Structure formats: structure tokens, C-alpha cells
Amino acid sequence: MMTRLGFDVWKPISVGLWLLLLAFLVWPLSSVLLASFIDNDSGAWSLSNYVDLWQSRAFHRAFINTFIAGFGGMAGALVLGLTLAVLTSYWSVKGRGLIQTLAILALVSPPFIGAYAWIVLFGANGSVRVFLRDWGLAIPTIYGAGGVILVFAFKFYPYVYLIVSGALQALNPSLEEAAESLGVPPWQRFFKITLPMIMPAIVGSALLTFVLSIADFGTPRLIGRDFNVLATEAFSLFASEIGGHAGGASALSVILIVTSSVFVLLQRYAVRSDLYHSGLVKSRTPHSAKGLGAIMVYGLAYLIVLCGAIPAITAVLFSFRKTSGPVFQQGWSLQSYEKILSSLSTPIINTLNYSLSAVCLIVMVGTLLGYLIARRRGPSTAALDTLLMVPYLVPGIVMGIALVTRFNVPPLAITGTGFIIILAVFVRRLPYASRAVAMALRQLSPSLEEAAISLGYKPWRAFTRVTVPLIAPGIMAGALMSFVTAMNELSASLVLYVGGTITMPVRIYLSVMDGDYGTASALATVLLALTVISVATAFHLSGRKQSVLL
Amino acid sequence: MSELHIQSVTKRFGLVPVLHGIDLTIRQGEFFTLLGPSGCGKTTLLRVLAGFLMPDSGSVMLGQQRLDLLPAHQRDIGMVFQDYAVFPHLTVAENIGFGLKARSVSSSQLRERVQEAMQMVQLDGLADRLPSALSGGQQQRVGLARAIAIRPKLLLMDEPLSNLDAKLRTELRDEIRDLQRRLGITTIYVTHDQEEALAVSDTICVMNKGQAEQIADPFTIYSAPATRFAASFVGTMNFIPCHNMTGSLHIGQDGTVHTDALQALCPQGAFELAIRPEHIAIVADSHACPDGLVLHGHVEKTVYLGREVQIKLVLNGHSLLVQTPAPSRQNLAREGDRVSVLLPFEHLVLCHPDGRAGALLP
């Protein structure tokens, strides 16, 4: 709509962004798609990779397991998240800030730390299990489908909690009062009035946890043992095909993308419009629970958030335990930290390096993209916006495979360098950043920039002098959240790393695989500390808006 | 001294035409208002002048200069926005000086001109406040001061008062008018509020569906609308459908034949007679008048407004709104009362089926 005279600086920028996305998103992914249709042995076009998968029992199991993990994780997260949201919205629970903090801690701590911590506690020689065994109480190990679902439930419930309690807060309590005055009893009121209105939020958050569960690689790998899912299967196939043609892994990747796309699109559909969002919102006055009710409310709420925070707490505690080799001993020490400082500083430095570089790129490109999407509507930017959906659909492991297969030959032979890890993080996180910027811009009147132009500023200067300073807090908050995900990125890095470019999450993953829990704890604690600091800052910068975390 | 000439400007958004060949001439120092309902193209025209939109055809000349060929930031046009568009991260003084900074004005002169602009809009003493600490009215004053501080050749205002409450609106409206007179800046003002337009303008252009319906001073716009649309949009207007066939004049839905004097003034075929509520008088039943039309009906509803009374009458199957100064309690018309009303010929407006309108009396 804004046709301006003279040179429009946004046109070349738009072209540049298109080229960037085509080169680093479309082109690598096209390699996966193409490779999946090429026979590994003959090199001819064929459906043989898909046929092989179709006939493979392992694939069948992985496919079914993926859905078991997805629906299991979703169901668990829904039960925990909904319970917590309803409890904290309807009853005044003391320490609401603490509950929120613990939920956010569970949200931001990387899933593989969760898996690892549960192993430390409930694995074959897990502390809790050993402790209970000494008392004559034998409980099964955490390994297998149950463990995976448990980890997902406690890892992903904060999404349900934050989204649903947001919807409950946006709900006009007058509606419930109206129902009450019409003589509808409380229980019916919840099911007939409240539940239908927060349904989009519930369905949307449930599908989100499903997509996150099926894309996760670290958890089933560490805790699943024989419980293989599509993501782990793709990695195994890829590892076995190294050097050759990655036809099988590619076909599996395509299937994983399609599966996750279906659910991402369902999720978008569920949250397509905030139908019942009322503009006039008076805040709800929560009841104060008394007697037995209070014990129930408090007990349940704190049980959920404390269990969710167990991984983080365990990692921190165990990092200070005395070790002898990989085995924990009685007593406390800083041994693990001494070890990572003396011999394992490379992953820390690498992680900081790559994450910072990726975030710088994300901020620059994401801001420009967000501006185009929010302010220059047109067929080209609409297409760009749609293209930015793609990274949401592609699990990390698939993105890693795509980048490796495309960039191991000239003109861009960057496989094995740090660049490719930076690139992976950049491409995967870019949509979040540009969406955050677009959202911040939509809350900013376009006439601000027009005012600057009419006062004599060129369009580009109007953008940098007026718009950028105004959306800077939003950009910074988005950047810090990108930094958090960049630091915690495991699945793509696992495919992309070589000895010299190893990152903290990969090192932790390898340490856990080797049973070196002391090192893993210390590294996880360092990672967690960096994460918590970044999230706290982002939360503060965004004016304490929870939406920044999602 | 330079006039602004807008010549056959057209604009379409996709396939939707928004401006159909607008021609306007605006004198130096004139307060010119674009008045019309939403979607009539008034804001589009303003944005074409500002340079935020490019016309599909036509030209805009300021004196000898082709304005439409300049990029927006080189046009030297002050713009005041509906949503104020005050920069929230800058103080009042920084906002007002923002345009001067782009113009390499020396810092001492900048301070002086900011001070001067702040005084003009009565913002003295608020220089270091941030906009979030200002009321809506004060924010719009900042917007106004910022626009005039650059001493623009043209001042554009896009519904500047529509986000303010009623009292503040009249207050600021009068201030804008006074300031414009004092500075003599050619001003183009967009509004959908006809009362606002009548109050501030030298000239009003009534717009509808991308076309200029009538361009005239406020008095003419109100008393002698040139089109049926202008008659209906500005103020309140009664429309009475009429039909004139050889020998008989039908007024309203029922066939009622009327005086020769009126028939002689009316065209053949279907048309409408229009009259403002305040020009209708309630008269005695037997009243006869050579230069007015007397109609009979009954009172459907009265609305007492203190200073005046609005009476809704039903006559000949259609309704007529009458506005009279409030009479004493006893003389207030009651629902169901039978009344006669006089519609003086001099106030009747003739609306032709093609949309044109004009005074009934030549």
C-alpha cells in the first residue's frame, strides 16, 4: 500500500532476504527431498527408499512409537498444565511468583537435561531407586516408553499452563457471573461456559506439545533405550549412511516433516482466531481455599511445579557431588567444575561463540523480515511469511541432515566448521525472531514513521531513528530467547558437529551416554545458569510478558 | 504566494477505484476541509498530497512546482495524525525539534523555534515530559507544534480531533483555527464531522465515493447544497418524495394536489423536495400562505432537548422532522395532536433524480 517515490530501500532488502532464505532454507531442504527419491545403490530416480521403509519392521515400530510419545507427552502435559492453570486462576495460591518461576525453569531447561536428571534419580543405579531398594521397595527403571512420556509431560506442561492461564485471565469473569445469576451451578458453569471458551487455547497448546514431543531427539535417545522414534531412527540411519548416499535418512526425514506439518497446521487452525477474547476485562478475584481444600490446592500445585523443576535441581545438586571417575561418591566437591574448566572449556567457548554469532544474525535479519511482514503487505512478503513457517515444521535432526548433505561440497563446503552450526541455529530460530518483531510493530502505529518522513527524514532514516528504538526492547527480548534456544540446541548440532566444533549440549549428551554424570551435571549447571540469566533479562525487558517465553 | 492545484488525480487500490479525477484549487493561506463519510477517499487524497501514496494519474502543483514528483520527505509538508503519532521515546521538546534536526538548523535556533512552537500550542513548561505523561489533547498539541515548527508550505490534518472527547474537541478546534489564521499556513483538514467542518473552514469540499460533490464556503454548503448527497450529509435534512404529472402535483405517498404557484416551480416527473427541520414552522390549521407549502399531519413523537424541541410528524404516510425553539409547557405538542406545518418556498431545496440539487426559487 505504501508506494513511495524515488528509491525504495526496502525493495533490495526484500530481494536480499529472499535470496538468503532460498539459499539457506529451501536449497538445503530440497536436498533431503531429492535424496529421498534417489536409490542409494543405482543413483536413479526411484521410490525404493520409501518402499524399504514401508517394509521395515523397525520403521513401523518407530512410527507407532512416535505417536505413542507424542500423544503420551501431550496427555501428560495437558493433565499437569490444565490442573495448574485452573488451580492458580481460581484459587489464590500463595507464592504464585515461585510457581511461575519454577514452571518457566522447567520450560527453558533443555529436554536432554530432564532426561538425564531422571536417569540419575530413577535409572538402573539411580539415587532414588537405590534408596527405595534399600528399604525393600523395588520400582522399575525409568527407561522405555513410560520414561519418555514422563519426561515430556514434565518438560512441556508449562506451555499448556502458560497458554491456558493466559486464556483464563483474558476471559471476562462477568460471563461466569452471568451464568451464575441465571442459576447454573458451579460445576456445570465450568463445563458449559468456561471450558468451551478456553478450548482454542487448550487444543492449541496440546497440539504444540505434541509437535514438540515428536520432534525431540535427546529424550528418546537417552531414556528410551529400545524405544525408537522417527527422530532417533533418522539419526541412526543417517549415521549408518555416512559417506554414502543419505537416501534412507532423507525419506524418513520427509515422513517426519509431513507428520509434524499436519499437527502444526492443525495447531494454527485451532488458534486461528481468539474468538472469545473480550476487550473489557476485569480481573478475576480468586477464592481463598480453606481447610482440606487448601491442602489439596497447595499440595497439587506445588507437587507439579516441583516435579517439573526436579531436572534442574538435580543437575545443580549433582554437579557439586564428589566423584571418582564417572562414579558419584559421598560428600561434596568442585571436582566436576575443575574438570570441565581444565579439559572441557572448548564446548563452553564454542557454545557461546556460535550462539552469539547466530543471535547477531537473527536480530539483524529477523528485524528486517519482521518489518517487511508487518509493514509492506504484498504478494512477495505474504509468500515470505509463508516460507517462514517451514522451520517450524522441520525437526532439528532433519535440518541438520539437510545442511550436511547440501553443504559438504563446493561452492559452500562448510560442513565440519562452526559456520554450519551457526547456520542451523540461525535458520531454525529466524521465524521466532521475525514474528516477535512483526508483533511488536503491529502494536506500533504506522503513522509514527510517516510523521518522521513528513518531517524530512528519508524512509530508511525514519525506520532507524523512530521505529528501531521503539521496538528495541522487543528485539532484545527476542534476541535473548533466541540465545537461550541457540545455547540449548542439541539435535541439529549432533549431526553437524566435529571434534573441534563440539557444543555444550552435545558434550552433555555424550557424557550421559558414557555414564559420566558428574561432568554432565557441571556442564548442565553452567548451561542452566546462562539460560536462567538470559530468560530473566528477556522477561524483564518485555515488561514481564509471558508471551515472550512461548 | 502559491496556490495548490490538484488536477484530475485518480487512485485505485487493486481494482477498487478510490479517487475518480479530483480537481481542486486551494488558495494560499486557505483553511480547506475535505468532508465526507468513511471510505469517500478524503484520507487517500490527503495521503497523496503528503506523498505516502502515489496517484495513478493526475498532478499536484504547488505554485510552479510539481509536488507529486517529490518524495515525501522532501515536500516540506507538516502533517497532523489522527492517532497523534507522537514519538513515545522522545520528550515533548525533542518531538517538536525532530523535523528541525533533519534540516540542519543551528542548535540555538532550534531551541528558539521549539520554544516558540510550544508557546503557540500552550505547552510551555512541559518541554521535558515524555508523551506517556500527557493527556490526549496535549499529545495532539505536540503533534501540531511538531508540524508547524518546520514552517511547512502546507499543513495537512487527518481527523486530528476524532480521538478526543467532545469538550476538548471544540476547544482544540477553535485553537487550531486561530493558530492557522495567525500563521497563514495553507491547511487541508480531513474530517467526517460536519459540525467541525462548518466551524473551522474557509472552504469545504464535500466528498462522496471518490468524487467532489460540492466545493463552497460553509454557509453555501449548509444553505444551498448542490447535490442530494451534500444535502443529506451536512446537517439534518427532510426529503419529501414528489411527483409532477401534467395537471397534478403529488406530494408524499398519497396523491395530494397542490397550489399552482408550487407546481409552476417544479419540474416534470419524479423529484424530491428537501428542507431543514429548523425551517419548518408549525402554523394554525386554517393558515394559507402564497409563498409556502402547508401540510397537515399528526405528531408521532416529541423529543424535548431543553433549548429546542424535535417533533416527528407523520403526514401523507411519510415522516417529517421539525425543530422549534422550546415553547412553554402548555404549548408542547403531544403525541397524536393534529398539526399543520408551513414549508417556506425560499428554504425548499429541489433534488433531481440524477442527484443534483438546487434552491427551489430561482
Q: What is the element string of chain A, with H for helices and E for strands? A: HHHHHHHHHHHHHEEHHHHHHHHHHH
Structural class of chain A: mainly alpha
What is the N-to-C succession of helices and strands of chain B?
EEEHEEEHHHEHEHEEHHEEHEEEEEEEE
Mean pLDDT of chain B: 90
| Biggest sheet details of chain B | 6 strands, mixed
Largest pleated sheet of chain A: 2 strands, antiparallel
Rounded radius of gyration of chain B (Å): 25 Å
How large is the count of helical segments of chain B? 9
For the terminal residues of chain A, how far apart are their CA atoms? 31 Å
Strand order within the widest beta sheet of chain A: 1-2
Please state the oligomeric state of the protein chains shown.
heterodimer
Strand line-up of the largest beta sheet of chain B: 6-7-8-3-9-10
Would you give an account of this structure?
The complex is a heterodimer of chains A (550) and B (362). Chain A is built from 24 helices and two strands. Chain A is mainly alpha-helical. Chain A has a two-stranded antiparallel ribbon with strand order 1-2. In chain A, a hairpin with a 2-residue loop joins strand 1 (321-324) and strand 2 (327-332). In chain B, the strands form four sheets. A six-stranded mixed sheet of chain B has the order 6-7-8-3-9-10, with helices on both faces. A five-stranded antiparallel sheet of chain B has the order 12-11-13-19-20. Chain B has a five-stranded antiparallel sheet with strand order 14-18-15-16-17, with no helix packed on it. The longest helix of chain B is centred in the middle third of the chain and has 18 residues, at 166-183.
